[in-house]
Design goal:
326 residues; alpha+beta; Neuraminidase; Serine Threonine Protein Phosphatase 5, Tetratricopeptide repeat; 12 strands; rod-shaped
Length: 326
């Protein structure tokens, strides 16, 4: 062994607890000789038999013995492949959008490190350099079907991954579960990923938080719902659906003064919003102040005569008032 980087030995895996298979980027005996044929000069080797199992590979990396099969990455192609040792047949299982390096396999899942290709002569001429976009992240692949299950892309702060590993029985909190962005993230089938439009505006970010509040409200978890409505309003201060639903939740909890203040603040900023008066009517109705409730339902109908919700609220109120006066 000499520190002259002749073949660029870069990957090794164990079989039965002992080193067995390695990858290298070339077979030359010249310092840095592998670089001349880096696009298809790589090899996969059995170090016990000293046999070259495969050659002509594009920068192979990360050999793995898993489920009694030999797997490896071709970094230059962004590929995960499997070698049948009995037949010598190579199956390309999946391709991902970047330079593949580092892999952990668990069951039918492979977690593959994907790096951005550096702007240097070392990486020129590789198939992955022709990709329209260069990304860095972890791609999760079903090794039986080749389907990309999901991925984590690092949009900033990281360009290369050299190894991937799992820490058993460990949980790391990357982002708090109450974080706004958590509620605006979704898992999308790989076939549909090109159609995805990520939330960009404040109201797009606030909407899923608001919907979570509605779900909690419908489950009877009013306090938790109020907390979510407040988060939505912190993102988009004039997001009126969150304001109205928060006021209703406050009223249901008997926190009438808070509910009234929330709605009166809306009226102060814009007295033309019909829904505000209907919500105020509901708050007064819950308090038993039927006169004020009637006043605000009628105000809503004055502004919008065909406002069905206010009509229904007023009808219910009139029936209640009739019972009281009977």
């Amino acid at each position: 062994m000499q520190p002259t980087d002749k073949c660029h030995l870069n990957g090794m895996c164990l079989k039965d607890g002992k080193p067995r298979y390695v990858t290298a980027l070339g077979q030359t005996d010249e310092p840095l000789g592998w670089r001349a044929n880096k696009a298809n000069g790589g090899l996969l080797m059995d170090v016990v038999t000293n046999e070259i199992l495969l050659d002509g590979l594009s920068m192979p990396h990360s050999p793995r013995w898993h489920q009694d099969q030999l797997w490896f990455l071709e970094s230059g192609k962004g590929a995960l492949s499997r070698l049948d040792l009995d037949t010598g047949e190579v199956t390309e299982v999946a391709t991902v959008p970047g330079f593949t390096r580092g892999m952990q396999m668990v069951g039918d899942i492979a977690l593959i490190g994907v790096s951005k290709v550096r702007e240097s002569a070392t990486f020129s001429g590789l198939p992955v350099t022709k990709l329209p976009k260069r990304v860095c992240g972890i791609w999760v692949v079903n090794i039986q079907t080749g389907r990309i299950i999901t991925f984590i892309e690092f949009s900033s702060g990281m360009d290369e991954i050299f190894s991937v590993g799992l820490l058993p029985y460990s949980v790391t909190e990357i982002g708090g579960f109450d974080d706004t962005l958590t509620h605006a993230n979704y898992m999308v089938d790989n076939n549909d990923i090109g159609e995805v439009k990520m939330p960009e505006t404040p109201i797009e970010l606030a909407a899923p938080v608001f919907e979570k509040g509605n779900d909690l409200f419908n489950d009877g978890k009013k306090e938790e719902a109020i907390a979510e409505f407040k988060k939505a309003l912190a993102i988009q201060a004039d997001y009126l659906p969150a304001t109205f639903n928060m006021a209703i939740a406050l009223g249901d909890l008997g926190r009438f003064e808070e509910a009234e203040k929330v709605l009166l603040d809306v009226v102060e900023n814009d007295a033309s919003i019909v829904e505000t008066y209907n919500s105020l009517g509901y708050v007064y109705y819950k308090q038993g102040d039927f006169a004020k409730a009637k006043e605000h339902f009628e105000k809503a109908l004055q502004l919008k005569p065909d406002y069905q919700q206010a009509k229904t609220s007023l009808d219910v109120l009139k029936r209640e008032m009739a019972k009281v006066n009977a």
